[in-house]
Amino acid sequence: MDKYPITARSLEKYFHIKGDQFERAYKDHLSGYRDWTEAEHAADWLIFPENIGTHISIDETAVSMGELYTIVSNKAAHGQKGAIIALVKGTKSETVSEALKKIDEAKRNLVVEITMDFSDSMHAIAEECFPKAMITIDRFHTQQLSIDAMQELRVRLKREERKKDIEAREQHKYNVERRLERRKEDKTDNRGAKRKRKNEAYKPMRLANGDTPIELLTRSRYLLTQSGDKWTDSQKLRAKILFERYPILQQAYSINHSLRMIYNNKNATRESALESLGEWYNKVTDFDDDAFNTVSATIYEKQEEIVNYFVYRQSTASWSH
Which one of 9, 90, 249, 257 has the lowest number of neighbouring Cβ atoms within 10 Å? Predict the structure, then answer.
């Protein structure tokens, strides 16, 4: 239990003990919890100054029951032992900054870069507690903005297809009822009393891969987030049908892919990335979609910190580098 996150009850059948009783004994006597000097404030904040490094990240995480905590980690630890520098309850900049300032200022000034998302509160914390560090907006959060805009368009198209489907079903139902009424009115037609035939049930349109339009848009959610060279054969067919049927979604995918390629360019520098972003803004302007326009404006506002990524190519995720 010292090394692995297991419950006392899980040990019952192996060691023939009472789990609840052992848990109390472990907490009160074996674990050293009662003598832990941090116990009084552990629920609100924990700091580990010895884990600080030159490249760190700050993010929010849900520890338990959806309760948000701010976590500061050392990227050199790659998510392993010694990664956590601070864990503070909540995301309020004043509260988090107060806890982080318990770390000696000289140590905090050793930080060269701090990566984060677009959060204003995280930005305020970084400026207050790590004034000498370069702020870098995480690449994956930036790309996610574009992905979300594309998915918003996909959902919008799906909503339109669902509306068409409902109208088609209602029209089918109306046509069936009208045919039955005409049969009853036609005295020479002895089929009027017959029940509706099973083959008169509504059948939605099926595309080349067997999907209905609604299913096509639903099942394309994942493939739209991936580069085309990672698609399986079935995904390639689905994408082909999707883009032929919805060219506007192909344009959105192309814009999203262009942003991904800016980051994937191994030879890109901070300056060349700024130029590439300028070209990307033009593509978004030509596309003229509200969701993408909002993303473009958001990225433009933070572009100086976004292109800082190309200095050290660090990400918020501690294990990604």
Answer: 9
Number of C-beta neighbours around residue 273 at 10 A: 19
Name 41's Cβ contacts closer than 8 Å, sequence gap at least 6.
none
Across the chain, mean pLDDT equals: 88
DSSP for 53-104, written as a single string: -SEEEEEEEEEETTEEEEEEEEGGGTTSTT-EEEEEES--HHHHHHHHTTS-
Bridge partners, residue 62, by sequence: 68
- CA dihedral over 260, 261, 266, 269, signed as positive or negative: negative
φ and ψ at residue 189, rounded to 5 degrees? -100, 110
**Model confidence at 318: pLDDT above 60:** no
Smallest CA-to-CA distance from 250 within 275, 274, 228 is with: 228
Buried b (16+ CB within 10 A) or exposed e, 47-84: bbeebbbebbbbbbeeeeeeeebbbbbbbebeeeeebb
Confidence label for 66 from pLDDT (cuts 50, 70 and 90): confident
Distance CA 315, CA 321 (A): 7
pLDDT at res. 123: 96
CA 39 to the chain's CA centroid = 34
Helix (H, G, I), strand (E, B) or coil at 206: coil
Question: Longest Cα pair distance anywhere in the chain, in angstroms?
Answer: 100
Which pLDDT score, from 0 to 100, does residue 42 have?
77
